[in-house]
Amino acid sequence: MAICRPSNRHNMGIGEMHEEMSLDSYLKSQEQRYLDLYFRLLRQPSVSAQRLGVEECARLLCDTMGELKINGEVLPTTGLPVVYGELQVHPAAPTLLIYGHYDVQPPEPYEAWVSPPFEPTVRDGRVYARGSADNKGQLLPHLFAVDALRAIGALPRLNYKFLFDGEEEMGSPSLPAFVQANRERLKADQLYCSDGPYDPSGRPTILFGVRGLLYLELECEWANRDLHSGQFGNVVPNPAWTLVKLLATMKDARGHVTIPGFYDEVVPPTPHERQLLAALPFSEKDFTASLGLPPEVGLEAQDHFEALMFRPTLNIAGFKSGYLGEGTKTVLPSKAVVKIDIRLVESQDPDRMYHRIAEYVARHAPHVKVRQVGGAVPPARSSSETPAAQAIIRAVRDTWKAEPVITPSAGGTLPMYPFTKILGLPMVFVPYANPDETNHAPNENMSLEAFWRGIRTSAAVFTELSALDRSAFVAR
Amino acid sequence: MAICRPSNRHNMGIGEMHEEMSLDSYLKSQEQRYLDLYFRLLRQPSVSAQRLGVEECARLLCDTMGELKINGEVLPTTGLPVVYGELQVHPAAPTLLIYGHYDVQPPEPYEAWVSPPFEPTVRDGRVYARGSADNKGQLLPHLFAVDALRAIGALPRLNYKFLFDGEEEMGSPSLPAFVQANRERLKADQLYCSDGPYDPSGRPTILFGVRGLLYLELECEWANRDLHSGQFGNVVPNPAWTLVKLLATMKDARGHVTIPGFYDEVVPPTPHERQLLAALPFSEKDFTASLGLPPEVGLEAQDHFEALMFRPTLNIAGFKSGYLGEGTKTVLPSKAVVKIDIRLVESQDPDRMYHRIAEYVARHAPHVKVRQVGGAVPPARSSSETPAAQAIIRAVRDTWKAEPVITPSAGGTLPMYPFTKILGLPMVFVPYANPDETNHAPNENMSLEAFWRGIRTSAAVFTELSALDRSAFVAR
User: Fold this and answer.
1) pLDDT class for B331, splitting at 50, 70, 90?
2) Contact B195, B429 (CB under 8 A)
3) Would A352 be classed as within a structural domain?
4) Is the peptide bond prior to B135 cis by the omega test (within 30 degrees of 0)?
5) Domain count across chain B
6) Domain carrying residue B189
């Protein structure tokens, strides 16, 4: 493990010099320095999927932390390294674990970029580069906030732990084991993360949960080869029919899943969460129209968001059997495969769900094989009602001068469970990036306004949280 | 239209010269001549799918008929031409309409042929060439039988009509309209055709019917694009689920189709046909074992053949929705398509069946579109109990010195309905080719034994039928 000691290069006696300065004035004074550090990090490729520059970027991020007088270390995992840092302020103070990632998506196709992906370029008030928003431009604001608050003598009485993942864009395969092995070191009171875009309306988004994921393949094979449907039709079983008949028993006419136990362990929304759902910006008409759906399939806001955030799905992600080309082929297929993804909600467990499905299939269609594909991800969801949650909401509202869109859960999945389940922390996401960041795509960008507001948001969150006692942080 | 007049080239005063000769002795004397005519026809490519040499082959076949003193004509259709010929023997005699096809399957891949596909080559008593068995080597025996019987003064008192299709390998798209337009010209009492292989046991096969075919696509589209299954799962309908739920209602737990009217117009087997089914060579154990099926899905002989020959199918020939690749993709598909082929049995009508299915879908899943793909083919089935059928069975048994495998219907489909439905003829197939003819594949071949036996079979059939009155020919 490499330990990057605080550097003195930028040590200008900060802390004394700027004690009387406001945060805004200080940020103004450091504009070029912070942008230089940001752009230097963007110039270093760190494409985890391609193993391109990831270790180099980890060392550079560690150096950056050192230059900001935060002890950083590059720590090994079973995969690509994490960058870890701590700033202990007071043993009795609450501890914030800040999670981000320094790896980036592959930049391809290069030709679609207006300026090169690893050469940050400012145009119209935006920084264009791979990782500008996802996530280098959203993890640095936390570090800059600490640096700036300390410089003006206003560092909130919190302990800070920074965990920067090098494999997030690959689904963080090594993170759970790393967290498990480093339980003591990572002990904290609250997880905080900035990733993704804020609400398209311009209002800030605050996210308290994610759904989990279990991905299955159900496969049926009867004859050992494809057969002529005339010469064998009616006398050899058809695996597509077997899957169709099996699947059809899994949902009732209203789409409710009938597999015994499928909704077990589902934690329904609290009255407060129901209020939040009703307050989310939503137009049923615009939603169906934008997707070309007949209006009658739309749901009212409350139902829509409860279905999306608080109920598990049983989605057919793929169904493949027989002839898939144009026109006719009269084949009796040998094999049929259906891919199913199940979004899990708090507090469902992927293993228990797997066994439920496997038992159901064994009982109803013993000839069908069930197998899990990819790694399962448990769900995570934290309360938005604790004093800590309320403090974060307040800090965001005050900084943005806008009412946050408080989202009890995303419909999608992120591996937050190592924090919520292994470390027992409440989680919260406060995205700093502009809605048109085009992350994962060419011309990824972060608006400079969003970047500087990110630093001020982190500073406000740290300040609000520091006013709380440790008992104010309660995992759901 | 080209009329090919009888040539005098091979006219050796046949009829007087050979009056006392036996058929076998005469065939022996003509061995080289018949093989020369056969090989000349094989050397002429006639690949209908590629429009390769088809017209040339039609003219050559017409010339060949002329050389055998049968008036031949090349007649236009809306597609590729047919070759038609007549030999009127006596106005009061029954008329046999002999159907065959002079077009062939594409020969590709060339490199898999031991000898070139259009250069007939004899190895180990077999003629290797494209079309050697399918169907040039099975249509010529009828012509040679007429020629030989006439030469020995034993031409049976029948009227002969020959109809040789140039599009059979494409599904005979122009044949129904041609037959319809030429109803008068094609008037006859019995259809006779030799195509396909005889029974693998070496016993002759006699086939009295085929199932029909209707091919449908059912398509469901909900959202106008594929969606993220997390961000939209539970709030946007999934077209694969829509099709699964719809399809599942179409069959009960035992596989019986529940669509109202699906089994209407099904003509069940007669007591005689049931006896034939029970007598067909079949081992349930060998059948399931050869296909790698669990023994419990096998049916007993009677059930097996009744399902295959006398009941319509509702086969899923293809099901396609969402992600079809390896591993995981969490997509909520925009579209799902299922391809269904329905094998129809006597006396079901494809149009009526189409409307039944379309009505059912409109009632149960109005968002699903139904469309027919390709041309529908009505079924055809004739009685095996008429005096004419019995005469043909007798002729085959006597010639082969083996008990025929009498098959009331094939499971598969051939466009025989223009003959049975438009002309009202009883149909019969007597395949002359060896079971390992590998038709439609490289190294297609016809054993010379099968070829010469084919001529003797045609001769015996003509002779037996000529003893009958016209009233002995009854369409079912």
Assistant:
1) very high
2) yes
3) yes
4) yes
5) 2
6) 2-210+379-472
A328 shares contact with chain B (CB less than 8 Å): yes
Task: Provide the CA B55 distance to its chain's centre, in angstroms.
Answer: 22
The reply to whether residue A317 touches residue B329, judged by beta carbons under 8 angstroms, is: yes
Contacts of B300 (CB under 8 A, 6+ apart): B284
Complete edge-to-edge strand list for the sheet that includes strand A445-447: A121-123, A126-128, A445-447
Paired strand residues for A390: none
- B104 contact partners, CB below 8 Å, separation of at least 6: B45, B46, B47, B48, B130, B131, B134, B135, B136, B169
Question: What kind and span of H or E run contains B100?
Answer: strand B95-101
| Inter-residue contact B282 to B199 (CB < 8 Å) | no
Angle between helices B31-43 and B136-151 (to 10 degrees): 150
My answer on whether omega of the bond before A45 falls inside 30° of 0, hence cis, is no
CA distances B88 to B6, B146, B152, B156, Å, are 14, 12, 18, 11
Q: Where are the beta strands (DSSP E) in B312-357?
A: 315-322, 331-332, 335-344
CA dist., res. A172 & res. A344, Å (int): 18
Predicted pLDDT at A21: 87
Return the number of other C-beta atoms located less than 10 Å from residue B150's C-beta: 19
Q: Does residue A305 form part of some domain?
A: no
Return all residues near B372 (Cβ < 8 A) that are at least 6 apart. Answer: B214, B215, B216, B354
* Per-residue tokens: A280: 């989310």
We report the CATH number of the domain holding residue A261 as 3.30.70.360
In this prediction, the answer to ipTM > 0.85 reads yes
Q: Any chain B CB within 8 A of the CB of A235?
A: yes
Q: Does residue A114 sit in the same domain as residue A160?
A: yes
For residue A168, count other CB atoms closer than 10 A to its CB. Answer: 23
Q: Ramachandran region of residue A15, left (φ > 0), alpha (ψ -120 to 50) or beta?
A: left
Is residue A448 within 8 A of residue A164, CB to CB? The reply is: no
Q: Is the pLDDT of residue B1 over 70?
A: no
| Same domain flag for A202 and A322 | no
Residues A21 and A31 in one domain: yes
DSSP string, A146-214: HHHHHHTT---S-EEEEEEES-GGGT-TTHHHHHHHTTTTT--SEEEE--SB--TTS--EEE-EE-EEE
Between chains, do B331 and A313 touch, taking CB under 8 Å as contact?
no
> pLDDT-based confidence at A375, cuts 50/70/90?
confident
A319/B319 touch (CB, cutoff 8 Å), yes or no: yes
Say whether both A219 and A359 belong to one domain. Answer: yes
Residues of A in contact with B374 (CB under 8 A): 327-328
The answer as to whether B292 is a domain residue is no
Instruction: State the smallest CA–CA distance between residue B66 and chain A in angstroms.
Output: 39
* Residue A318 touches chain B, beta carbons under 8 Å: yes
- Tell me which H or E stretch contains B216: strand B212-221
What is the per-residue DSSP string for B113-153?
-SS-TTS-EEETTEEESTTTTTTHHHHHHHHHHHHHHHHTT
Terminal alpha carbon distance of chain B: 35
Q: What is the pLDDT of residue B42?
A: 98
User: Do A191 and A416 form a contact (C-beta atoms < 8 A)?
Assistant: yes
User: Is the pTM higher than 0.95?
Assistant: no
Q: Which DSSP category does B30 fall into?
A: T
Q: Which chain A residues touch B223 with a CB distance below 8 Å?
A: 291-293
- The reply to whether B197 and B173 lie within a common domain is yes
Domain assignment present for A357: yes
Partner residue facing B318 (CB), from A231, A297, A323: A323
**Cα diameter, chain B:** 90
Type of residue at A72 = G
B162 & B241 share domain: no
Tell me if B64 sits within 8 A of B55, measured CB to CB.
Answer: no
- A98-148: pLDDT as tens digits: 999 999 999 989 999 999 999 999 999 999 999 999 999 999 999 999 999
